[in-house]
Specification:
membrane; transmembrane; DUF1980
Length: 236
């Protein structure tokens, strides 16, 4: 492409990054903490595009250009950029989760829990405490966690969150098995808020043999997809 086409593509790409950074779209690609970098990259690309167009205009004003015309098909390169602006890709879900082994890992330390009353925990937080602290501080407590539904080949239900280190490309699942009063019909990828109690029951992930704890369910209700579908517990 000529310089004008290059500057146009840079401008559209920069606009796409600004659009993603100023909305929740960027959360489909990177963790929340990278928002300033996404916005900065968009600004840099737009400034570069405007500078390229300005220098090209000055060059044409000084001398007549006799270059051949580039094929118009090259402008098709812009279409994926418009797709980025107009179409928000879905977050990784049950298909990826059940084909990837659990990424549960032991934390360097867990925050102190209140001594009494119900607990609302992140799914990865509950799973880590259940496995590596053997449920210390969880036994006999009402616990609420949220995640999306995934079913294994036998139809056994799991509640899952995709844990994020940097971006969606490195997202890995953390899984919690469900037992007890499970709804009779569960839709994969549907989000549930599950309330229950700790149980020492656990199993091994069929993909990588990693530990999967269970929650004894007493109540489960559908909830909307959260603002940020990825779990960034490991980044805190």
């Amino acid at each position: 492409m000529n310089r004008q086409a290059q500057s146009a593509v840079l401008f559209v790409l920069g606009a796409a990054l600004l659009h993603a950074g100023l909305t929740d779209l960027y959360l489909r690609y990177v963790k929340a903490g990278l928002r300033p970098l996404v916005l900065a990259a968009g600004v840099v690309l737009i400034v570069t595009a405007l500078a390229t167009a300005w220098y090209e205009w000055r060059a044409k004003a000084k001398e007549e250009e006799h270059a051949h015309r580039e094929p118009r098909v090259s402008w098709l390169l812009v279409l994926p950029l418009f797709a980025l602006i107009l179409v928000a890709p879905p977050a990784l879900g049950s298909y990826s989760a059940m084909r990837t082994g659990t990424a549960l890992q032991q934390s360097y330390g867990y925050m102190k829990l209140p001594r009494s009353g119900p607990l609302r925990l992140g799914l990865a937080d509950y799973a880590g405490r259940a496995v590596y602290e053997h449920g210390r501080g969880l036994a006999g407590r009402q616990i609420t966690i949220t995640g999306f539904v995934a079913l294994d080949r036998s139809g056994a239900p799991y509640l899952v969150r995709m844990a994020l280190n940097c971006c969606a490309a490195d997202a890995q699942p953390v899984k919690v098995g469900l037992t007890g009063q499970i709804p009779p019909v569960l839709k994969p990828d549907g989000w549930l808020q599950v309330t229950g109690t700790y149980t020492a029951k656990r199993t091994k992930d069929s993909v990588n043999g990693g530990p999967i704890p269970y929650l004894q369910v007493t109540k489960a209700e559908p909830v909307p997809t959260p603002h940020d579908p990825y779990d960034e517990t490991w980044n805190n």
